[in-house]
Fold this protein.
Amino acid sequence: MISSKAIASIVSKKARLALGLGAAATTVYSSVLVDQFHGTLPESVGEGTHFLIPWVQKPYILDVRARTHTLSAIFATDDHEPVNLTLRVISRPDVQCLPTIVQNLGLDS
């Protein structure tokens, strides 16, 4: 029989490996290319070395990491007791939709 300590060790090692692989696969920055002649190009460009035409193409580098947004509100119950309600939302933009987001909402959103 395998002891519970051995099982916990195996699960811990597999979890660390999965976490490491997940962290290595995520990108932090992605960019949208804007061309002077064609406008916003339909594909976003990930991290790495890319060739641009100077004075014609300009990259807008965007942060695509997950961000937290916290919304807080205070409500009153029927007997007038205050209730604090906090909602935490974690979101990140879809990398394939970045050109559409930049075209419709701009860079500040």
